[in-house]
Amino acid sequence: MPTHFIKLKPSAVDEYKAIHAAVWPGVLAALERAHIVDYSINHYPPLQLLIATMKYVGDDYDADMKKVAEDPETQKWWAATDGMQESFATGATGSGKDIPWWTEVEEVFRFEGTS
């Protein structure tokens, strides 16, 4: 389950939450086509962090993420949301580019249980 983080601009908190309260159906459809069955974004205000986790159930993560990046509706979504964020990645210029906009973090522990 990949986890990523990025900084949310303090001036954009309300706008970011509002747009995510009604995510565009085409964006959600692109995620589903990419075999993402569980996706959440959490906000940690003291550090202005957005932390995203997703459950990927496909066979080729890189290819599926490329399809998401090529989706026109997702590109419009990123154009609306990228300006609300500040990337931690040196040289990043936006979502779907060669340098990842969101920073992926290493998982050091997971417990899934048996239930």
UniProtKB/TrEMBL annotation:
One family name in Pfam for this protein: rhaM
| SUPFAM superfamilies with a match to the protein in the record | Dimeric alpha+beta barrel
Q: Which Gene3D superfamilies match?
A: 3.30.70.100
What InterPro entries does the entry give? Dimeric_a/b-barrel, Rham/fucose_mutarotase
Q: Name one GO molecular function term.
A: racemase and epimerase activity, acting on carbohydrates and derivatives
Q: Matching PANTHER family, A to Z? A: L-RHAMNOSE MUTAROTASE (PTHR34389)
Q: What is this protein called?
A: Rhamnose mutarotase
